[in-house]
């Protein structure tokens, strides 16, 4: 090494820009302002959608929570919010195809809706996004999935990598695989945003090719700030090789 080499500065690495154009459709987000724990205002929603457009998305299917205890949304509330959001985007001249479905919380009230034949908001055709609590396994989990299928719905299990009970219960995980329940993982899980165990479990699901959908689960700008670190993940290329359904929605 010469004397001058000591003083040479190493060129900083230019981080790769996030490109999700290959995914085309984000089917899990919380972008209708004021209806759940997602976007709080029309201005915030428009900013978030503009950023998602910059990442290459051409269509968004936003999915407000429907939870009997906390977010008592109805299809009417959600669709009215969607129309207001579309108007806001039009006024701001932001071109984005946007639809709305819901992220249903699995509990007894949801099971009653299914058993009564109540019409559910779907991601596409008969696909319904569902979630559970993160710590304890719902006693009726498999029963609810069975009831949904008997009533013509295909469940999409939202962010299964975040459920501690599923990480610990290999028998349940195997049962869900056997029943071919669709898994949707959050892109943020691969960045370590939630925790190291969540990241490891998400990576396993990718390696085992058990993932059918990817979503941002975008709630606010903090989510997208972290999402922009995804290109640093060794799984950034791996997820492009998955047989996903996003671009068929």
UniProtKB/TrEMBL annotation:
Any one Gene Ontology molecular-function term assigned to this protein's record: manganese ion binding
Enzyme class: hydrolase
Record-linked InterPro entries: Caps_polysacc_synth_CpsB/CapC, Pol/histidinol_Pase-like
Superkingdom per UniProt: Bacteria
Catalytic activity: O-phospho-L-tyrosyl-[protein] + H2O = L-tyrosyl-[protein] + phosphate
The protein's Enzyme Commission number: 3.1.3.48
SUPFAM superfamilies: PHP domain-like (SSF89550)
Keywords of the record: Hydrolase
Keyword Hydrolase in record: yes
Positions of transmembrane segments: none
Recorded family membership: Belongs to the metallo-dependent hydrolases superfamily. CpsB/CapC family.
Protein name: protein-tyrosine-phosphatase
Protein's organism: Mongoliibacter ruber
Highest classification ranks of the organism: Bacteria, Pseudomonadati, Bacteroidota, Cytophagia, Cytophagales
